[in-house]
Amino acid sequence: MKLEILGCSGGVGGGLRTTSMRLDGDVLIDAGTGVCDLSIEDMARIDHIFITHSHLDHIACIPLLIDTVAHLRDRPLVLYGLAETMRILREHVFNWKIWPDFSVIPTSEKPSLRFQAVALGETVDLAGRKITALPANHVVPAVGYQLDSGSASLVFSGDTAVNDALWDVVNRIDNLRYLIIETAYSNAEKDLADLSKHLCPITLAAELKKLHRSAEVYISHLKPGESAQIMKEIEGYSLISAPRMLQARQAFIF
């Protein structure tokens, strides 16, 4: 499996892109503004999108992508997420007011988009690539994902605050190789991080002490203009895992 980071910032500006990752050319994990850098041909190859939650920075490109490539495809693009996340997208995005309902375009029998609810802990098997919904603790219903090639796994936390349930699962993954975990704010903004259910360096450090598996750790979702300060604060905790900042266009093969 190859996971390419299309965007991993907590915002935009100066070339930054929000969360989106492409798996093997045909799968997206979240669909933030990083998707906009794909060619139309590459967009048309996307068959599956796994959404962590309904916030705009993680779903922004879904409506535009479908509108752009629907005429190039002969089967619906499948959108996966919690049932509540699917309901939110139907009600607030694909509602004919914000965007057309592509689940009935061009017809309900042959739609451009299909919503597929996944339950927490459920695994979707795409030709041997196993994608499992993991617990997240955010202000809206949310999940992270485990991507398992069989030989190794990558875990993406999604947006989350303190989350004991995640570590209960992650510590049972025998083939864990990579962990991508968010840290959106600096310690000076801990109150805001707690209110919005994100991590800051002090809470990240406490969370990583719950990780009992060896893994390469990468930090995502840093707020624009604050990444250097956030990483400096993380480095100050001298964590055994030595987290590194995730970078756009970085690739993981596992």
Q: What structural category do the secondary elements indicate?
A: alpha/beta
> Strand portion, in percent?
25-35%
Ends: how far apart? 5 Å
State the order of secondary-structure elements, H for helix, E for strand: EEEHEHHEHEEEEEHEHHEHEE
* Rg estimate, integer Å: 18 Å
Please explain how this structure is put together:
By secondary structure, the chain is α/β, with parallel strands linked by helices. The protein has a single domain (2-253), classed as Ribonuclease Z/Hydroxyacylglutathione hydrolase-like (Metallo-beta-lactamase, Chain A). Helix content is 23%, strand content 26%. The protein contains eight helices and 14 strands. The protein has helices at residues 40-44, 56-59, 62-69, 83-92, 164-170, 190-196, 201-208, 227-235, and strands spanning 2-7, 20-23, 27-31, 48-50, 77-81, 113-117, 123-126, 129-135, 143-148, 153-156, 176-182, 216-220, 244-245, 251-253. The strands form two sheets. It has a seven-stranded mixed β-sheet with strand order 6-5-4-3-2-1-14. Strands 7-8-9-10-11-12-13 form a seven-stranded mixed β-sheet, covered by helices on one side. A hairpin with a 3-residue loop joins strand 2 (20-23) and strand 3. The radius of gyration is 18 Å and the shape is globular. It starts with a strand and ends with a strand. The relative contact order is 0.14. The mean pLDDT is 97.
Keywords, separated by commas or semicolons:
single chain; 254 residues; alpha/beta; Metallo-beta-lactamase, Chain A; 7-stranded mixed β-sheet; globular
